[in-house]
């Protein structure tokens, strides 16, 4: 039983999924495969910007996240800076972490830094602090995040998301079935369990 988790550090609702998906998947016996990708690229291609320039919708979004965070016992202390990670550096570090097997820890730490400490995890100084707390060598990680290998993997996951029909973050994928949004996490896990044989 396997579920792919496409996410973008910079997606607001992904905070909820990054905070709870690993534990839920484990409790359901489902393997969660973390897939950082550039939702920003897909949104530009699809002319699909959900909140920028839409103050009424943005106010609703922050209140909705606050309600859902309270429901699931996830810390929330008001709206953090938004948007973040203009160079998608945090997402390339997440890609490196996915290649090396420490993506959940990094993504959770990056989101805590963003939502709770109100710091942009895409800024090099913030990233260095996050990486050091995780016991990683910041200089080495940032250097590797700039390599062709990591950039190519990030582009590859973005292309795969495009081919699957992904248009937002978070999105959960089982086979060719996609489930968009934190509010579809339970549905995605149930589908993965019910259709594991297929």
Using only CA atoms, what is the Rg?
16 Å
Portion of residues within helices: 55-70%
- The overall pLDDT, averaged over residues, is 96
Number of strands: 4
Shape: globular
Q: Going by CATH, what is the homologous superfamily? A: Glutaredoxin
Task: Provide the spatial order of strands within the biggest beta sheet.
Answer: 2-1-3-4
Q: Which key terms come to mind for this protein?
A:
alpha+beta; Glutaredoxin; four-stranded mixed beta sheet; 9 helices
Please summarize what this structure is:
The chain is an alpha+beta fold and 198 residues long. Helices cover 56% and strands 10% of the residues. Helix 1 links the parallel strand 1 and strand 2.
Written overview of the protein:
With 198 residues, the chain is of the alpha+beta class. It has one domain (2-194): Glutaredoxin (3-Layer(aba) Sandwich), CATH 3.40.30. Helix content is 56%, strand content 10%. The protein is built from nine helices and four strands. It has helices at residues 14-27, 39-46, 55-72, 89-100, 103-115, 124-133, 138-145, 148-164, 185-194; strands at 2-7, 31-36, 171-174, 177-180. Strands 2-1-3-4 form a four-stranded mixed sheet. β1 (2-7), α1 (14-27) and β2 form a beta-alpha-beta unit. α4 packs antiparallel against α5 (103-115) and α4 (89-100) packs across α7 (138-145). The model has no long low-confidence stretch (mean pLDDT 96).
